[in-house]
Structure formats: structure tokens, C-alpha cells
Design a protein that fits this description.
This protein has 67 residues and is an alpha+beta fold. The protein is built from three helices and two strands; from the N terminus they run αβαβα. It has helices at 7-17, 32-40, 54-65, and strands at residues 24-27, 45-48. A two-stranded parallel sheet has the order 1-2. α2 (32-40) links the parallel β1 and β2. It is globular and about 30 Å long. The termini are far apart.
Amino acid sequence: MMPKIDGFGVMAELKKRGIKTPVIVSSNLSQGEDVAKLKNAGAVDYYVKSNVPIAEVVERVKKVLNG
């Protein structure tokens, strides 16, 4: 967990400030409701960091950057 603010708080703050930067969330939270909450908050992708090989992370980032 991040100190002072969690991923949900970060997403809320980005939305509040009108920041449109695409966000891919890397977390160890794997509950369906957490994933849904973050995607509803504006995350473009989400993965459980302990379950995804680095090559897949690179592909996800490329996909977001290439539209």
C-alpha cells in the first residue's frame, strides 16, 4: 500500500483535477470489485503485479501508447 494515499485516491484526484493521462494500475489487489472501481475511476488497464510477466506489462503499455 502506498503511504498517505491509495490508488483509489490517486484516481479520484486525477479526475478532480481534470487530468486525462492514461493510467495502468499495477496492484496486488485482485478482487473484482477493486478492479471495477479503478476502471470506473478512469484506469485504462489493470493487472495484478505478482501474476504478470514483464513482457506482458510492456505489451500493455505499448497498447495504451499506440491508442
